[in-house]
Amino acid sequence: FMQVTASAPGKAILFGEHAVVYGKPAIAVAVNKKAYVTVQKREDERIHVDIKDLKLSGYIDPENNEIEIESRENSKKGILNYVLSAVKMVHGSAQGMEIQINLDIPIGAGLGSSAAVTVATIAAVSKFNNMNLSKDEIAEYAHDVELEVQGAASRIDTTLSTYGGVIYLSKNAEDIVPLEINWNIPLVIGCTQDRGNTGELVESVRLKREGYPEVLNPILNAVEALTNDAVISLQKKDEKKIGELMNINQGLLDAMGVNTTELSRMIYLARKSGAKGSKITGAGGGGSIIAYCPGKIEEVTSNLNTIEKAFNVEISKEGVRIEV
Ligand code: MEV
């Protein structure tokens, strides 16, 4: 192949973040905000990566495990570690490659941008090198990349970027079941400027649970119960219940201590603008909110946009794909 482009979707958690760390279930969806990775042949044998949306570019060297950044100091340069590790998995013959990455997922907002980049990179580079990987293999390699780069990782993001759709996960995200949802869930995402640190937030909930086990354990059990109720509500398209369960989940996330003033402002503005439910999505402490907005997408999006960046997302039934 002279040129290959692959795309992979990002994700949003609908129910159960944080509780999922304690073996409770969660529901997450792939969203139609994607990473696009294009690989082309280069005249020399180097591998050059360009992420225009982040004004970030540089050379990666899979043999020596090195990254040489060209751009000035860039707070988003961490994404290149995922690209390097992904290329290492499927590099094949040592030929030169020009890798161009386009993102319509904001980075570091809890929307699975690094998994989407990882999955699309594995798909594009493997195809470019004439390897035919199955989706299962892509998902496995992508999980290995996250383990290598982050030290620890659940399979939520890499699973959704690979297969798309809606998933129910349990047992510390080891057990993943696709959910058949046959309607388009109308969702709006709002992103704060702050980037919560997932590791620190998970640790803060752990400490809170250690300090107040008799308070926190029932909260985690309540999240489990509402997440299981949400499966039924989503399957029945029970709009009122879906919204109420999201709002209850938000109250419990607040109790866990992962809410912020900025997230709260957006959450309540979304409800005031007609959202049936709204909550933090992901780790909190900054990052993003998700609002469920039947018939109110425009109102919620434009009102949220007056304070932070907001956009409508749809569920991406499709996962990773080679673009024609
Ligand atoms: C972060 O996106 C979701 C958390 O539940 C952490 C995790 O599951 O790894 C907060």
From TrEMBL:
Chemical reaction(s) catalysed: (R)-mevalonate + ATP = (R)-5-phosphomevalonate + ADP + H(+)
UniProt keyword list: ATP-binding, Cytoplasm, Isoprene biosynthesis, Kinase, Lipid biosynthesis, Lipid metabolism, Magnesium, Nucleotide-binding, Transferase
Cofactor: Mg(2+)
Residue span, GHMP kinase C-terminal domain: 233-304
Residue ranges of every copy of the GHMP kinase N-terminal domain listed in the record: 81-165
Pfam families: GHMP_kinases_C (PF08544), GHMP_kinases_N (PF00288)
InterPro entries assigned: GHMP_kinase_C_dom (IPR013750), GHMP_kinase_C_sf (IPR036554), GHMP_kinase_N_dom (IPR006204), GHMP_knse_ATP-bd_CS (IPR006203), Mev_gal_kin (IPR006205), Mevalonate_kinase_arc (IPR022937), Ribosomal_Su5_D2-typ_SF (IPR020568), Ribsml_uS5_D2-typ_fold_subgr (IPR014721)
Residues the record lists as binding ATP: P106, I107, G108, A109, G110, L111, G112, S113, S114, A115, A116
Broadest EC class assigned to this enzyme: transferase
Compartment(s) where it occurs, according to its Swiss-Prot or TrEMBL record: Cytoplasm
Annotated catalytic residues: D157
An individual GO BP term: isopentenyl diphosphate biosynthetic process, mevalonate pathway
EC number: 2.7.1.36
Pathway of action: Isoprenoid biosynthesis; isopentenyl diphosphate biosynthesis via mevalonate pathway; isopentenyl diphosphate from (R)-mevalonate: step 1/3
GO MF terms held by the record: ATP binding; magnesium ion binding; mevalonate kinase activity
GO cellular component: cytosol
Known function: Catalyzes the phosphorylation of (R)-mevalonate (MVA) to (R)-mevalonate 5-phosphate (MVAP). Functions in the mevalonate (MVA) pathway leading to isopentenyl diphosphate (IPP), a key precursor for the biosynthesis of isoprenoid compounds such as archaeal membrane lipids.
NCBIfam families (alphabetical): mevalon_kin
Quaternary structure annotation from Swiss-Prot or TrEMBL: Homodimer.
Family designation: Belongs to the GHMP kinase family. Mevalonate kinase subfamily.
Name of the protein in its database record: Mevalonate kinase
UniProt organism field: Methanobacterium paludis (strain DSM 25820 / JCM 18151 / SWAN1)
